[in-house]
Amino acid sequence: MNAALREFRVALMLLSRLPAGRIEGAAPNLADARWAFPLVGLALGLIGWAVHAGALASGAPAPVAAVLALAALALATGALHFDGLADFADGIGGGRDGAHALEIMRDSRVGSYGVLALILIVALWLAALASLGAAAGLAPFLAIGALSRVAMIGLQETLPAARSDGLGRMAAGRSGRARLSAAAAVLLAGLALGWQGAALVATCAVIAAGIGVLARRKLGGITGDVLGATQLLAEAFCWAVLATFWPG
Fold this sequence. Notes:
Elements: H1 3-15, H2 30-33, H3 37-57, H4 62-77, H5 80-94, H6 98-106, H7 112-132, H8 138-158, H9 166-170, H10 176-193, H11 195-218, H12 224-245
Helix pairs in contact: 3-4, 3-8, 4-7, 5-6, 5-7, 5-12, 7-12, 8-10, 8-11, 8-12, 10-11, 11-12
């Protein structure tokens, strides 16, 4: 099997619950596969758009369509990034120091910081998409799906792993192909959406930078939860930016 296809399938398995088939032999490592993160984001964005557009076309009110789109994305990703945000918020909010924060983030239970973070970010996501309604077309869904995963690549390219094991460690390291893929996603978003695309890129960059600084200071680097939190925050704030400055 072509190496690029195998790597894409690894990325698909990691970031979604979409069928990816079975990889024979040794699977590519996550560091090699992360160039495909934006492609997985495109597939997930397409799912979100299809559910959202289908709901609106069937006569559903905009808030209902927004809820259905978010539910579809949560199912398609196995709520992976929601879990990451909750764990990250609990660790940052409740950790006395880096080691304690990492210990909290390993705990499968969700604390008050995690619950509050999920409530707020889901509310932001839904309010923004509901206010956009039919103005949330295919191009924004695709761009946000891809760029929010580019934000993950940005952290992987610039920060060390916080642990000697785990997802953050397995996906750590620099990758020229990942940087090229990220640059292509940024360029295509700009070409497709113009100033809107530039605003989405800037939003994802700000979120990644903010989470990266916090993770470096508090944890010493990135973990899988840090990456998941970055993706979900970037996605939600991208919709909020569109709803605020381009309400349709």
